[in-house]
Protein 1
Amino acid sequence: MKHNILIRGGHVIDPSQNLSAVRDVAVSGDRIQNIDETIDPADAEYTVDARGLYVVPGLIDLHAHVYPHSPFGLEPDPLCAAGGVTTILDTGTAGSYQFDAFRRNYIDTAVPEVLGLVNLSCIGLLCGQLGELLDRRYADPEGVVRTIREHPDVAVGVKIRAGKHLIGEGRQGWDNFHDAVRAARESGTWLMIHIGECPMPVPEMFEHLQPGDCITHCFKGGSTRILDENDRLYDAVREAAARGIIFDVGHGAGSFEWETVEAAVEHGFEPTTISTDLHVKNIRGPVYDMPTTMSKFLKLGFSLEKVIELSTLRPAQALGRDHEIGTLKAGTRADIALLERREGRFQFTDSYGHHRTGTELLSAALTIRNGNILPGGGSQHARRLAEETA
Ligand SMILES: [Zn+2]
């Protein structure tokens, strides 16, 4: 046998190779072996009939909470097959006090690849509902830097939730913000800032950010938006995006507003990365999973190729790992998602209870992680297709 798995006849979309066409994909061990117009099934140990499905790099969720010792945290494994997600970035659920345990109990054992941002607050989101940095004594930039140095393979950056109810107002808010920036610089990594009810105006934040730093919840409504009071995109946002600041969706339970995203898109703004901010309080809606979040961008008029790019190549680049993930290039790790695109009328709800009706819904049909076909997800679909056409 030359290949362990052959994925036949699917529509392959791999923005890292500018590829969008029907192709066969062969997997050998934990690597993608090759992509071709046809690959002989006699050479394969196991064949997946992917006709009618999209074959894309394993999805990368750049914003989720998968440290279950926090009241926000989900178990990482079920998200993988259910959502076609093979790499999950946990965004600061753990702080310096918990990261060792997070690594030992979840990161090292999870089915998906789990990476983490370290919260500036030493207690992370252990009781995040109380405001993790309202007491300045919890700000621990030295602990963040030490944690990243101890876990350089999985602790990849710094997180702060910059809401005034979380970090304090005025001087205290700025002091926490500056501590987070300093931790990112001293650790040689990057900073993700959660915006929403911020103690400082959004444009003023950019003066302290470098290319590679990230604003998440970029389509949040309310008092902190990337739009001014006249619904126009701030010039500072446009300039920041142009110089490489990452604008991440981070949908969440309170951070995606149809009116905001529609106005921003109308002004030509495009997020850098699509992500869910999945946690305990939104997995049963309105977020559900990565493919549902991606489908909302189809509704906004983005092409499927673009939506795949914002969910694979772009987050891989944000993580500095596009040589290994977010791609189907031969020789890279065999993390692959098979997606189904259903047509119909689907109600898409934002974080504020407002609805839009879309005509296309993506779902995960099959997920391959590290060269293994995972149980769960919609793999029944692939089997049914094969039987119907046998
Ligand atoms: Zn979050």
Protein 2
Amino acid sequence: MIEFYNVDLNIDKKTILRDVSFRVLKGEFVYLTGASGAGKSTVLRLLYMDLFPDRGTVIIERYSSAKIKDKEIPYLRRQLGVVFQDFKLLPDRNIFDNTAFALRVIGMPGKEIKKRVLRVLTDVNLSHKRNHYPEELSGGEQQRAAIARAVVNNPIAVLADEPTGNLDSDNSMEIMEILQKINQNGTAVLMATHDNELISAFPHRIIEIKEGRVGR
Ligand SMILES: Nc1ncnc2c1ncn2[C@@H]1O[C@H](COP(=O)(O)OP(=O)(O)OP(=O)(O)O)[C@@H](O)[C@H]1O
Ligand SMILES: [Mg+2]
């Protein structure tokens, strides 16, 4: 389970979040909405513990922002798959190696890596591009590769920060279908977006941030 519990966050003496509480249950799909600058990306950074609250607690499964040690943060992040608006693939590795990266870091046997990577690349309809480099792929394809990379380690949740922000509407729809499928297989999805059309096409619970607080 993912939980924000009475979180306050200030950056450079400016209050970004005040007393924010919410929960995302196992296997839920939730949108994080709010105007530009409302704090959506900041909420996601608090969840993968790139930032820590000034007050309150962020909980991801058995990890708490109040107690986690620096050396545990990589283990926490292995429970989460993160997807960004600008893809953030490694430019000097092909799509297979981009996807395999996190599995190699944890020392998984090569044979198992190959099996898993080919499976997730097939899930995002990209196995035919596995030997290509990111710059040889379209935006939609790069985002599909980024999603494959995010889910290859079977995270409990995918955190997606405007994953369709750089894509046209057809590619956005395809990304949404893939996120739906991932969610139907039991992975929670927390997606920051301000695309109301997408939200209407794929309705799920909405957490809205407004003036630093969570409304409904
Ligand atoms: N590193 C930083 N230093 C100073 N201020 C920051 C920093 N990161 C974020 N902020 C401020 O925190 C607030 C929330 O930013 P955040 O990026 O979370 O918004 P957002 O909802 O993701 O916006 P967008 O829709 O434009 O991506 C903004 O006022 C922003 O200026
Ligand atoms: Mg943002």
